[in-house]
Fold this protein.
Amino acid sequence: MNELALIESASLRAEHAGRVDVLDKVKALTLLPDGVHMSTELVANYYEVDVDAIESVIRRNRVELESNGYEVLRGARLREFETVNLTVSKRRAFALFPRRAILNVGQLLEESKVAQDVRAYLLNLEEIATHDQRADAIDRVRLAQARVELLKAGEGYLDPQWQRTNIRIQTAIGLGKEPEIDPDDVPLYVPDFLKGKRLKKDEVTSVQSMFGKRAASLYEAEHGEKPGKRPTETPNGSIRNTLAWTQRDLSIFEEVWDRWYASKYAPTPEHTLFGVDA
């Protein structure tokens, strides 16, 4: 389930309102001297936003926050609180957030990475038992988020279909789900295609560059544009942009093979005899 679901659903927020343990798992809390509450400023610091962002959440969701313990002290109650906590000020009002209200803010606050982590933790880690498992899962969420942001930053020079597919994959990984990929969007690589045609390693190395160029020419002739690109790790560990072929382009590969390579690399009688191409 997407973490944004908590922002949109009051019933879902209520269902998770008691999971205040999540707050300390995501980030250490800094409480007021009473050890129970946070002020507006402390909540803003926890979620790494300015005070205005917290006050905006309060204005839009005051009733819900009050149901989770948020309150504003005034008059005699404020003086009593300051006396107990050995603080003296001239302020006329002071907002207090117990843990449930702090969590409630995180369920509602949009422009905060910490709040995103809190929501992801609530929705994805309910059944994870150990501390190490929780830590691994939150690291997985953060890494997936970073990868999605990086993929989005590549808009304009990455192949759009490849970009969308990988965003779906990383989102699923972050949510702890099995990625669902359209079979036509599965990547297609020239070396793997040539190996499937029984070419030896040295033959693949010799053929693959020109094969790719011929496939790109056919693609451009058919679609009126060059194929997109994707970053690919080479055997030596470097990253370079390669053509973003997918199973949708298999027919182009087959046409290139039939026109320029099939006769040269036709199976030998020995291959057929022993069933290699059966």
Summary: Residues 34 and 186 are 56 Å apart (CA to CA). Residues 271-278 have pLDDT under 50 and may be disordered. The two ends are 46 Å apart (CA to CA).
